[in-house]
Amino acid sequence: MAMYEDADPLPPLEWLRVFEAAGRLGNFTAAANELGLTQAAVSQRMRNLEKHLKAHLFLRLARGVELTAEGEAYLPHVRSSLNAMRRGTADLFGSPKTKLIIASPASVAALWIAPRLREISSTNPNLQISVSAIHRSTDFDAAQADLEVRFGNGGWEDREAVQLFQEQLVPTCSAELLARAPDGDWRQLPIVGVSGPRDGWHEWSATTGDPPLKQPVLRFDSLIAAQNAALSGGGVFLASMALVRNAIQLGDLVKLSEKLLVMNDGYWLTWPNERLLTSTEEAVISALTND
């Protein structure tokens, strides 16, 4: 990049705001609409910024603009600095966030989020956390949550995502039920199934090489209901290791195999990619993704 001769090379903040929007959107008109300016005003500010820096930041094309190599290198620094100023201003002078809404499937809410709320509350005593149970994808719109726990591969176009845990499935059942297994073979016990997008017994057998099992005698449309059935001795349940770890440690469930089915999809904590997180939200995300 060009070398500066001035004692203070920092450009005006307004020029940097316009540069970040134009670089992100790849279009002066779109940047003008976002910032409440005219296209001519955006173009003028970018000419002033390039003159100030003694560098070309954009290639002017027939449709839109494209960052030059120097523009590409400069954009992350500008974006990071602007985000830091926004966060600092919100933390120091904005209204403190006293309520946080998390939308999550019931199983993750009960078995992953709830056990971590004590730690979150102890470090954020003024924060009220509301957890909304989600049963279908359309429920996310109604929840209007700050953070959403979604099932998938993490590749949502309009959302940032961080994985809560790696999804590993293993057969489990209650100790009482295992004691009644014919010849001690858990494969002869009743099987509990779960409907939905998660892998099931067919995938587990295909991956581990074990013989196919009997058809489930019980089937549920939620993971938490199937797990409760297994806890009460209703059958063998293909459990998520991350969600049943405590139950296994307490002896409420017995892990029946060392063979694990590792899924490509899993549970992710997500938020809109255009929204800047507060420091409180970052602390909550850190606590929920700490295994």
What's the quick description here?
By secondary structure, the chain is of the alpha/beta class.
Helix content: 40-55%
Query: Between the first and last Cα atoms, what is the distance in angstroms?
Result: 43 Å
Can you tell me the residue ranges where pLDDT is under 50 for at least 5 consecutive residues? Answer: 1-5
Kindly state the mean pLDDT as a whole number? 88
The CATH architecture classification of the largest domain is 3-Layer(aba) Sandwich
The major sheet is characterized as:
6 strands, mixed
What string, H for helix and E for strand, traces the elements in order?
HHHEEHEHHEHEEEHEHEHEHEEEH
Number of domains: 3
Provide the structure class.
alpha/beta
Q: What does the radius of gyration come to?
A: 26 Å
- Count of helices? 12
